Amino acid sequence: MTLAVIGAGMAGLSCAFALQQAGQQVAVFDKARGAGGRMSSKRSAEGYLDLGAQYFTARQPLFQQQVAQWLKQGVVNRWLAPMYQYRAGQLAASPDAEQRFIGTPAMHSPLRVMADTLECHFNCRVSTITNTAEGWFIQNEHAEQFGPFAQVILAIPPAQAATLLPPPLAVTLPTDLLQPCWAVSLQLSKATQHAAGGIFVKDQALGVSWISRQNSKPGRSVTENWLVHFTPEFSQQHLEQDAVFWQQQAQHALCEILGLANDSISVNSALCHRWLYAQQQQMPDSNFQDAIAPGLWLAGDWTRGGRVENAWLSGYELAQRIQHG
User: Fold this and answer.
1) Three-class SS state of 321
2) 3-state SS, one letter per residue, for 5-32
3) 3-40+108-176+283-324 is classed in which CATH architecture?
4) Can you tell me the mean pLDDT for 109-119?
5) Most CB contacts within 10 A, which of 125, 138, 174, 311?
6) Over the stretch 281-313, which tens digit does the pLDDT of each residue have?
7) Can you give the pTM of this predicted structure?
8) Which stretch is the leader sequence (predicted)?
């Protein structure tokens, strides 16, 4: 019998791909138009723009092997641009020995490679999951039904997973674990010529956590483009503000951090995106590695404290558990 994975981000596709490699039949469901989740990139006239995950690292041997394979396939590259830090009003170089990787030509490229080998149902927003004597059934918002499935893996944020579960199971999930993040991409008409690839912002007063120069990434735009990630607190405080507000905030923060006059940059175009479930600041109180009901599992970076690598490991290790018991 087929297994179902709900969510085509890194955790869901890692799990589905590993299960299929082991000989299982797997179907993947996602509300988006394609694979990626928070690793999705937006296509623009200048090239892809990364609005979610900015890079990933590989510290665990299993994931290092996977990244090496992606490097050979040409869907991942190293990001070698210099890192900076902004603290107490000062911007300074912050070199380290960390190896940073990005998908190429888009952050979601390695996920699309996995998805291309799988049975994927995109533009399919799951509304209910039901367990019967025949197995699990999935129904989408258009009342289309899929199944039966032997097992179901929910590889989505806990707040979204809770909406699909009966109350006794839903209340066990840490629905507030993932906090929002507004992301703003600014395409400049004139380059600042700044050398920074990424800037870790440690000044809470700005409401910004991270800035990156997207054209410093291999395969991205050649025109200077800056991406601003706002902190969970500032994003939550102004969650319903419009794109004009967020562009103004991003321009102000960029000028402040780079030490430029507010009228010294001109923006050709701006792209604002709200991630409702993005930033994780603590580990969940409970362990979600085991099935939460017979044949029903959870996967995601959030189960292990965040990060792309943990998303992949979450899905891969869950596949091994399902396969080997």
Assistant:
1) helix
2) EECCCHHHHHHHHHHHHCCCCEEEECCC
3) 3-Layer(bba) Sandwich (3.50)
4) 97
5) 311
6) 788 877 787 888 999 999 999 999 899 999 999
7) 0.94
8) 1-18
